[in-house]
Amino acid sequence: MKQLDILIKELKPIQVVGDRNVEISDVVCDSRQVKAGALFVAVRGVAVDAHRFIPQTIDQGAAAVICEQLPEQVPAGVTFVVVPDSTVALALVANEWYDRPSEKLRLVGVTGTNGKTTTATLLYELVQLLGYKAGLLSTVRNMIDRTEEHAKQTTPDHLTLNRLLHEMVEAGCDYAFMEVSSHACVQHRIDGLHFAGAIFTNLTRDHLDFHKTVDNYIAAKKMFFDALPASAFALVNSDDKVGDVMLQNTRASKYHYSLRTLADFTCKVLEDRLDGMSLLINGKEMEVQFVGRFNAYNLTSVYGAALLLGLPQDEVLVAMSQLVPVDGRFQTLRAPQGFTAIVDYAHTPDALVNVISTVNEVLSGRGRVITVCGCGGDRDKGKRPIMAREAASLSDQVILTSDNPRSEDPEQILLDMEAGLSDELRAKCLKVTDRRDAIRLACQLAKPGDVVLVAGKGHEDYQEVKGVRHHFDDKEEILKVING
């Protein structure tokens, strides 16, 4: 129980109608969860405006309501707090309800188009190897020390986010690492959190179904850096032209990492193999169990962030050599038939280029690249022809197939992808709508020395078709084929 006046002390309400000192038993933004004594925050969502449910919440016993507009009927005995933006208010109230948990942890956020999950997860695993307790909030999983909670979205909603951070504090965690999505920035899910540091990986076309333009997408990411405190560090990839944009207005201490130029943290790939790499990071040579320049970037940012958190360099380097790839991120499977299968989450043009280019570099013409890829339904349609063109340009054989068609016709999605192909590239491509059949065909086409890349879904263990999620795991399907 907390007094409403304490919960709203960081807000700047336009108007408060009723008793500020009313006792609050819970804070909710879903009207169906309102019980006696609860504070209901009415948020205007993309699909639904929760203001319409205010009367229902009052009938259910809400003690107070935060809203942007008073209802026509204002009943006695219920306190109304009118604010300019109830989404911002929800973040600040959630933070206060859970006793400002981010201030009791060293919280580092990772944003960018590609590499967020890998970077955040590797930092979490690194500090655990060094003997510290840590939490993780990622696309793949949420971890409270070593206890896992299923992740429903890249960055959780305001209340879930603060609850998880609070549970990390209760579990004795010293650090927390989280992915910060562009949606979370725009929707103010991270407002009120105290960050010890922020990492920018890269920025390429993605989520334009939501942001509409690349400029809007960049601006969303920049919001995160603009809000950092002076006590934080801001570490950006200086090989990405957007990196310095992130730093333009931040108060945080500024740092760079690079594979190409002078920077605070530099890396050179000495040798790249399908089972790992030799790297030179800030003059220190090391072996890692990762493949590809994109992973060299991820590891360099992990190294930089670890040192900026004050962790000992020598211990960090030893721990990094023990880290293993994140589930569904360039995950390698060796087939008895002599080919290698790789499962990767690459679902943007840039990520797909990075992965296929890495495979080509390692193979050096000693085998073929057979790529299986698709595009999700109800998302940015503009990237579909680009994805197909990049896959066909860099692969020896491509099988276009379904990803998560959602409510769309998978055949139409494949036609949209095929529209990006010239006659020469189209000759390399096959269309197999059923993803299971596509994976089976790719493995059957592979010869010893070839690589079968199954891209797009990575860690996901489902396929969404016509609004229904069915169990589907790329790795499982590959193993069925190669194990007979």
Write the layout of secondary structure elements.
Layout: E1 2-3, H1 4-7, E2 15-17, E3 23-24, E4 26-28, E5 38-41, H2 54-59, E6 64-67, E7 79-82, H3 86-97, E8 106-111, H4 116-129, E9 134-137, E10 141-144, E11 147-150, H5 158-170, E12 175-179, H6 182-186, E13 197-200, H7 208-211, H8 214-226, E14 233-237, H9 243-247, E15 253-258, E16 265-273, E17 276-281, E18 284-288, H10 293-308, H11 313-320, E19 331-334, E20 340-344, H12 349-363, E21 369-373, H13 384-394, E22 397-400, H14 410-418, H15 423-426, E23 429-431, H16 435-445, E24 451-455, E25 462-465, E26 468-471, H17 474-482
Parallel strand pairs: 4-5, 5-6, 6-7, 8-12, 8-13, 9-12, 13-14, 14-15, 15-16, 20-24, 21-22, 21-24, 22-23
Antiparallel strand pairs: 1-3, 2-7, 9-10, 10-11, 16-17, 17-18, 19-20, 25-26
Please provide a written account of the structure.
The protein is an alpha/beta fold. Helix content is 33%, strand content 24%. The protein has 17 helices and 26 strands. The strands form five sheets. Strands 11-10-9-12-8-13-14-15-16-17-18 form an eleven-stranded mixed β-sheet, with helices on both faces. Strands 19-20-24-21-22-23 form a six-stranded mixed β-sheet, with helices on both faces. Strand 21 (369-373), helix 13 and strand 22 form a beta-alpha-beta unit. Helix 3 runs parallel beside helix 5 and helix 16 (435-445) packs across helix 17. It is globular, with a radius of gyration of 24 Å. The N and C termini lie far apart (59 Å).
